Automatic annotation (TrEMBL):
Residues where pyridoxal 5'-phosphate binds: 136, 221-224, 280
Organism, scientific name: Faecalicatena acetigenes
Residues the entry annotates as binding N(2)-acetyl-L-ornithine: 139
Taxonomy, superkingdom: Bacteria
One matching Pfam family: Aminotran_3
Leftover remarks: May also have succinyldiaminopimelate aminotransferase activity, thus carrying out the corresponding step in lysine biosynthesis.
Protein name, as recorded: Acetylornithine aminotransferase
Cell compartments where the protein resides: Cytoplasm
Recorded catalytic activity of this chain's protein: N(2)-acetyl-L-ornithine + 2-oxoglutarate = N-acetyl-L-glutamate 5-semialdehyde + L-glutamate
Family from the record: Belongs to the class-III pyridoxal-phosphate-dependent aminotransferase family. ArgD subfamily.
Complex formation: Homodimer.
Length: 396
């Protein structure tokens, strides 16, 4: 019998998502529960969104209090929460100025516009972008134009012109594409959708040096890998390589739709001016309350330190799985953003883990992603490994 809630969704929604056949109802801590009462250990966190897990009372109470006051005002007016959230986000990200959006795609759209506007103001004549193979920056036109997968771009061509793609972690391939028209280089320090590919220290430093030498802006997309997931508040901080523009979303709002792009004072001075960009809901009081409270809890509870301390155990247990099953060919990633690489398609694996009550997600190149809420403890990792091993034994 088909779950009535799933059937209702199938009959009324445009079919653009490959959804799993479960209807989730509520969550608590590391666990989600479907409408039939089945429990699932969550190692996906809503694509790295729910960093604090589910049902955090303090976070929820802050949102309820703000709802009772006001959820939305026009961006023609100031509100205290927006200023406070911006100050805190700049502080923890190491940037100087921030613009709030509603999503990661919007954040990347804003970053691309800011880079173009910077070139326009400086009268450099630059307009081209260099992006990376296997990258993912979103599905809006600008974001998909700099996404390094033909499958995402091809159905919507012609996309944004002036984009070239280099090989990730190959600095020479980037240098070959640089010209007097190069406006910015955009990359993820740790690629998510592209298969959990971590930038090397040499590559990050090389990109920064190249940008400085050529007058090019460096854009880091940390929509997925930011906000504590790699064991530093933002991934660039772990490399010690600061971008000119930083994009973020997902865990900065812990489930409330909010994104942001931030920049240095230098870029802010010469880029977007009043009227150049906007977002009706961007920086609304509810979203800013979520950002402000999430940052407060992250710092007070030392979430980043917890990830740094616990991640080696996650890596160890995943490597044990790789050693045990011949069709698991390796582990890669950093912090609580890990992947196992398989020598066979992973759709069947996803189906089996779901049966075992484990939520994981796949990425490009036959990779299973492990993106648990950042509150995951060793006992949750052990439980995940047990469920994963049971699932893999059914298909070996």
């Amino acid at each position: 019998m088909v779950n009535s809630k799933i059937q209702a969704a199938e009959e009324n929604l445009i079919h653009v998502y490959n959804r799993f056949p479960i209807a989730l109802d509520h969550g608590k801590g590391m666990y989600l529960y479907d409408t039939e009462g089945k429990e699932y250990l969550d190692f996906a966190a809503g694509f790295a969104v729910c960093g604090l897990g589910y049902g955090n009372t303090e976070f929820q109470e802050a949102l309820k209090e703000q709802i009772d006051k006001i959820c939305h005002i026009s961006n023609l007016y100031y509100h205290e929460t927006c200023g406070e959230a911006a100050k805190e986000l700049n502080r923890i990200s190491g940037m100087d100025r921030v613009f709030f959006t509603n999503s990661g795609s919007e954040a990347n759209e804003g970053a691309l516009k800011a880079a173009r506007r910077y070139a326009y103001t400086k009268k450099t004549g630059r307009y081209e972008f260099i992006a990376m193979d296997n990258s993912f920056h979103g599905r809006s036109f600008g974001a998909v134009s700099v996404t390094g997968h033909e499958a995402y771009r091809e159905p919507f061509e012609p996309v944004l012109p002036g984009v070239k793609f280099a090989r990730f972690n190959d600095l020479d391939s980037v240098k070959e594409l640089v010209s007097e028209k190069t406006c910015a280089i955009i990359l993820e320090p740790l690629q998510g959708e592209g298969g959990i590919n971590l930038a090397t220290q040499e590559f990050m430093e090389g990109i920064r040096r190249l940008c400085d030498e050529k007058g090019i802006l460096m854009i880091c997309d940390e929509v997925q890998c930011g906000m504590g997931r790699t064991g530093s508040m933002f991934a660039w901080q772990g490399f010690g390589v600061k971008p000119d523009i930083l994009t973020m979303a997902k865990a900065i709002g812990n489930g409330i739709p909010v994104g942001a792009f931030a920049m240095t004072e230098e870029v802010a001075e010469y880029s977007l001016k009043p009227g150049d960009h906007g977002a009706t809901y961007g920086g609304n009081p509810l979203a800013c309350t979520a950002v402000k409270k999430a940052i407060e809890i992250f710092e007070r509870d030392d979430i980043v330190g917890h990830v740094k301390r616990t991640a080696p155990y996650l890596e160890k247990r995943l490597e044990e799985i790789a050693e045990e099953f011949a069709f698991v060919t390796g582990r890669r990633g950093k912090g609580f953003m890990q992947g196992l690489v398989f020598s066979r398609p992973v759709s069947e694996i996803n189906a089996k883990t779901l049966e075992e009550g484990l939520l994981v997600i796949q990425a490009q190149g036959n990779v299973i992603r492990f993106l648990p809420p950042l509150i995951a403890e060793e006992k949750h990792i052990d439980e995940m490994v047990c469920k994963l091993r049971n699932a893999l034994k059914q298909i070996q």
